[in-house]
Structures are given as structure tokens and as C-alpha cells.
Amino acid sequence: MAGIMIYSDKDELSFELLSGAKLISGHTGLPINAVCINNSEQAQGLAARGAETYLINNEAINLADSQGMASALESAAIQLDANIILLSSNRRGKELSGRLAEKLAAGCLTDVGSIKVNLDKIECMRNSLGGAVLAAQMITSDYKIIAVEPRVFEEMAVGKEGPINNLKIEAQAAELEVLEQRAKVGDTANIESANILVAVGQGLKSENDMLIIKELAEALGAEIACSKPVATDKKWLPEERIIGLSGKKCKPDLAVILGISGQVQFTVGIRDARTIVAVNTDENALIMQMADYIMVADLHDLVPEMTRALLVKKRLNGVRL
Amino acid sequence: MEFKLSKEQELIQRTAKEYAEKSIEPIVKQIEDENKVPDEVIEGLRELGLLCLPVEEKYGGAGAGFEGFVVGLEQLARVSGGVGIFVSVVMLGTSTIAVHGTEEQKEKYLTGTCKGSWIPSVAMTEPDGADPRMLKTTAKKDGDYFIVNGTKRFITNTNFAGPMVVFAKDADTGRINGYIVDKFCEGYSISEPWDKLGSKGAFLSDVYLKDVKVPASNMLGTPDEGFQTLKVTMAMGKIGLSAIYLGNILAAYDEAFNYSKDRIYLGKPISQFESVRNSIVDIAMKYEAAKLMTYRIGYLADNTANKAKLVKDSAMTKIFVTETAVDVSRIAMNVFGSYGLMKDYKMSRIYRDAIVGPQIEGTANLLKTVVATDMYK
Amino acid sequence: MNIVVAMKQIPDLQQVRIRNRQPVLDGVPMTFGSIDKNALETALQLKEAVGGNVIVISAGTEELEDTVKEALAAGADEAYLVLDDELEHIESSVSAHLLAELIKQIENIGIILFGEGSGDNYSGQVGPRIAEILGLPEVGYVCDIELEDSRVKVTRSLEDCEEVVRVSLPAVLTVMADINEPRIPSVTQILKAGKKPQQILEVEDIGFDLKGDKKIVTLSSLAPENKRKQITVKNGEELVDALLTEGVIRR
Question: Residue A82: which residues within 8 A CB-CB, separation 6 or more?
Fold first, then answer.
């Protein structure tokens, strides 16, 4: 019994998992099977990226029903002789991982931030203790379920076409009934995919000061993000913009962190940024220890100054404003 | 010897802190300006059991004892000295009735306070001072009633309905006793409120009692217990003040410590300067000392059968804590410099609150006389 | 109807300091994860709306007997606990099996609530695992609950959409942190907490072999290494210049 199986409800995440599977396969030589459920478009996408793709078409399987979904993937794993199962660590993926793991008596790691393969051992890194530490862990059970965070792997590029096979899975009608699905209203910012982030915290004195933050973000071409209290307590920004353990984990090229002390519950969501700028009045703030550029200053003074400097330099370089 | 809060006390501390930060902190300025603790705060305190911490459960109190009381009140007063005084006076009224009241009195007045809408007061001080020997308010027996006449000064919570324990001299025997007067009864009136320098928020005024008819059954204790009742009241008041000004010290400590990390001077936080660091350490030491004394007096209050015996220890605690609060505020103010003077900064409120402590419910000099009398007797 | 809330005892993360890349846990008090408190609040609100009993379940070290008072003070009626000093660092599958055994001792269960992730590991597995062990439907990331007789209508909050679903009871639900604001426990309730019933089980009572069922090994657990440049800049212009030079912002 050996093989790798990947599944995600999101097309782009499944393409990322394919890259992850390639990494493991490269070390272990195990075959890769990509599974799609009631989603032929995704199957074509995976096949276009060279995956041995298995499409399950069965309307009785309901994406919203983790019970039925776990059953379907359990059958697929058995039929495809796969013991290493890569899932995406988005909300649906995490729900599914636990349930599937229990079915297969498997060890399971979610929110996996990176994978290293040593001979045939798959080491997964994930945050622990609220993000204070990074744990390297390994699953020792026969079945292994690994839920990988978005953007850990690059999407596999389109290449040699793989086959699409139909996989027949029996399923009982779901007990769960979907009554409605609606898009989230309002803010649709995706801070996870932004190249530059400006993150504000409790150092921001009033909601009005958000204006200077917006100006800076505009000058930088950045998205605005925040620490949890700014969204949940003060409600100055929507929760979609929270960085941290219970928010988004972001890996921008540049993160400008303003007035955030740097509790681990926050930093865990930004420490993989390529370059970090920290602006804080407290020289000893934890955030300063993890910054590339440190500026001891009140953000209310620094932000307009930085915006001005940016605009001047852009103008000097002939950029139209 | 155990210097550790129980899990329950830790949770009481957390409840008081969370409530104070969530519901009092945002309106501290309003409470000070209006000299009034808003009804919704009183209701909030009552619902969470913070209004009647030491009152027994059977009367609707929280039953947290005086240990629970000092731990909780410290956190409330950390955010607002005025709310601290308000809650402390409720304790003073209910404790005085709890110690020497009859079952009927307790049932009526304690339950009415903890579960109903009453807010008690205690009236001792008069325009001439607070020395029992100088009391001019009289109670004259008239059939089933006492007729009470006199003027009381600097009395808290006089604007709320509820019981007021009035200390008065028996017009015939000259003995002092406490009488429970229902506020707003016939003959009860109050002055315009006094406007204190600090620890503002609880309504403070003079009280005029003109031919107030008090049922004889409203006298506290037996006629010869009056002086004991007075001693209990004095001791309890000092316990409340100790907890309030411990909270004030904690507030100054928090403010100064945080400010020292935030304030940049010559390119670095002032916490990098040794003089500031030493100031912060001084504050921390003083807080610990004041805390030990305050928590201990809470312990003694729970473990002393005759509460009148707490007069000396409670006076020593009150002197120490209130004077320490003034010291700490001065040190903390020096950490702030001019910013601390600005009303936008909490430090200015904390400083004004601190100044009040040593002057109320017995100045340090007066209380030292009390302590010395006990020591040399 | 009994409403069960699973809570996890964790060290107070605000107080954890790092020394030599190792977390210092000595003297750090234990508490419950913050989202667990939202799950408890959800249960209390359901109880207020439709009646029933709120039962907290948890597995942990001996200190849990004290920690659970936080939940009982907030209004839970009863606690079912597995206590063992070996339960300090257990993996999700073990937690799930221990908690499932506790749940089996409780009759007439309507809803089993979890936070969407524990305060320390945030792995989010235990709820779905327990649903699987008990053969129950499960809905994760719930931001709204409406009880309807023997069913429940819940809104699940996904990254890009909200989904309203209906499942039959009993069901396992995991809730989001913003579903409610946990109440402040009253002093009266705090002082009653210690007197509320606690059913305490040992691992042996359940017949579970803690060591035999390991599915995960931890190779290392260290605070991430700090490989940052740590350059102090004096003003906004200097900062912008440095970022341009570095190439992270374009001219």
C-alpha cells in the first residue's frame, strides 16, 4: 500500500498540492493521484498539469457535508491504494482532514507551513503554542493526512497532459441540507495574495487616523491588514483583514507593521514575509526583534512622512500620480 | 502562611477588571464631570455581584467576604476612584447593618440593596468634625419613635433612595447610637453636591435632618452597643479606602510603566534611563507593600469575630496605603513630566484621586492618635 | 436537552516568554483557549433560549479541576473531566477518543460545541474526529445557530462565502470567534463554581492506552530563528530609500 493522493475543493489550491505531491514523490518515488469531486473543470486543470486525475461524479456527494466527503475520499484512498493524503488547509479542508483521519485511523497535521522530505520521512512544520514555536512533526501511522496551508507551494505549471479517469464511488444522500449559499458582502480584500501589506494595530489612536494609513497603502500599492483587536474590538477593519493565528497567514514581499507590539498570535501570520518594517514607539516591542528595518517612532508622525517621501521619489522618477 | 489568591478570588479579580475596563473606563470622564455613577453602571455592578461583595448570600450578596471585596474593589478603583468610593460606601452601610442589625433590619435593608434598587449611606461627620464627642445630631425618644435632628457633612450617595445609618446622641442619655433612616423620608433634605478635587463620581453632599421620625425598631443594636457600632463603621470604612487607594497605586504603576516604554526622549524610550527605571522599581515595591497590608486587612475582617477590634489594624492600613498612593502618584507624575498634567492623560486623574485619600475618613494624624491610644493603653 | 461544550486547558499564551528559542512555561497559569470561551457562550445562549443543561467536557492535567471553574463560573452547569498528568501534550486523535468517551456518558445530547481551533495548536481536528467517532453530522466555522425542534439551522462562514445548512440533532458544531462576546462571570456564579458537579474519570477508567496510540512524533519544537537584518532607520525618507534599494518597492 503506497501512494499519494491529493484533494482540495479549490482549484488553485489543488494545483499547489500537486507541487507538494511532486516534492514527496521525488524523494519516495510514490505515484501521485489527484482526486476531484463533481468538478470536471478542476479535473481538466489538474490533468493539464500532468496529474493522473480521478474524477468522481456523484451528485449524492455534497461538498458541504464533511461526513459524506470523508467517506468518498476514504473509498478513493483505498481504491487508489494511497496512504499519503494531501489536503488543503482552508476551512473546508481542515474540517475534512479531521473526519477523514478518524476514518482511516490516521495521524493528521493541519496548517502545515512547509514540508521537508528526508529519505522516506515527511517532516511537516506547523505552528504550536499559539505560534510561539514552530514544531517539526512526522506522522507515524500507516495513513498520513497532511493539510497544507495556501501558498506554501507554487501552483504546478501547465505541462505534459495527464489522463482523466472516472472513479466510481458509492455514496448515500447527505443528511446535511444546504439551504443557501451567499457571497460575503462588503470587503473582499485578499491580504494573503498581496505583495505588499501595511498592517496596523492598537497603536492607531482613532478610526480617523485610518486615512493616513490608506494614503500610505495607496502610495505603496499595498493592501491594508491589521491585528485582531483592530477588527474584533474596535471594528475599524473587517475580520478578513486580520493577520495571525486565527486570521490570515501572509507571505508578502514587504510588510510594514505599524503600532503592533508583536504578540506571537499576530506574528505567526506575518513572519514569513520577505522584508519586515516595524514602526513602534516601544523600542523593546517584540515586533522589533523580527524586523529588517526598525523605526522607533509614533506611527502618526512616521506614516505621513513616509507617504511624502514615497510620492516625492516616484515623481522624481517620472511616475505620474 | 499563604500569599496566593484562590482560583475563585483570581476570577473575582478578573471579573472586576474586565467589567471596569469594558463598562467604566470609556465613561470615566463623564462620571467625573457629572459627579454621578450612571444607573447602568450601578445595575452592571449589581448584576455581577460587585456591588455587594461581602454581603452574605442569603440577603442577595455575593458572599465573597472581605478578601473578595478588597481584591474586587482594587480593580474597580484602578479605573475610577469615584466608582470605588461609591461601592465602598455601599459596603460600609451594609456592613454596619450586617454587624449590629436585627434579622428584620438585615432582611429588609441588605436584601433591598443587593437585589432591589437601594443604595445605602452612612452619616457620621458633622460640620464640627467627625469626633464622636462633638456630635450634635440628636435622637429624642417619643413613644415608638425617635425624633432625629441635625446636620451631617460630606455624606456619600445621599441622592439615592435606601437606608442611611445616622449616628446621633440620645437627647436624654447622651449615648451615641446608629439609627437607620430611610432617605427621602419626611424631614430629610440634602445640600447641593460638593465638588471634590479628585476621586470624583460618587455624589457627596450635606444632609439636613429636621424632626425626622425614625421607628424605635430602626435603632442599630442595643442602646449600650452604640459605641461598638461606631467602631465597626470606622474600621470598615478604612478597609474600603485601603482597597480603593491600592487600586489607585496600581493605576499609577500601570500608567508610569507603560509610559516609560512608549515615551521617546533623545531617540530612546525613557525606560532606558536609570533614573526612570529606579522610579518604576520604587513604585513596584510600594505597590507590593500596600497590597500585602490591604489583602491582610481583608483576611482579618473575614477572620475576626468582633469587627470592632479591627480599628487599629484598619487605621494603620488606611494611613499606609493612602500615603503610599500620594507618594506613588508623585513618582509616577515625575516619570510623565508635563504630559501628566494634561487632562487627556489618565495620570492627571490618578494624581488628583490620590491626593484625596489621606484627607478622608480620618486624616493620617487623627488616625495615628487612634492607633497610638490603642498601643499605649 | 444537554448541550456539551468541549474546552481545552492551555497555558495563558500572553504570559509565555521565549528563552533560547524554548518557550518558558514555568509559572504560567492555565486557562481555556479564547475561542473555547465563544463556544461556551454559544451554549449558554442556547440554554437561555430553549432550556437544557450546559455540560463542559475537557481532558488535561490535575490543574484542570481548578481551571474548569472558569467555565462553571461563566454558567456551565456541570463538568465531565478526564484527569491525568500525562495529558499535558496529547495529540488530537487521543483527545478525540478521550472526549468521545466522556460524551458517551452523557444522555440526551442535543449539540456538541467546539471552538474552531484550540488556543495553542489551532489544529481544528478534534471536533470533526469526534463527529466521526460518534457517527454524527458536523458543521464547522459556524457564525449563527437557529434551533428548530430536532434539527438545527446554522450558518457556516467560509473564506469567500457563507453557507446556510440544516442538520439533524445531535450534531457537532465548531464556532467562530466572532459568533458572540463571552459574558463576564458574576461573583455569585464564581463562588458557586466549585460546588457544581464534576464527574472525574481517570485514563484507566476509560481503558485507553495513552502511549500505544501515538500517531504523531514531534522532532523539534523551537521558536523560529530570527534571521532579520535589524537595521534601525532614523526617518521616513531613510526608510523609503532602504526599501527602494532592497527592491521590495518599485520606483
Answer: A2, A3, A4, A5, A33, A76
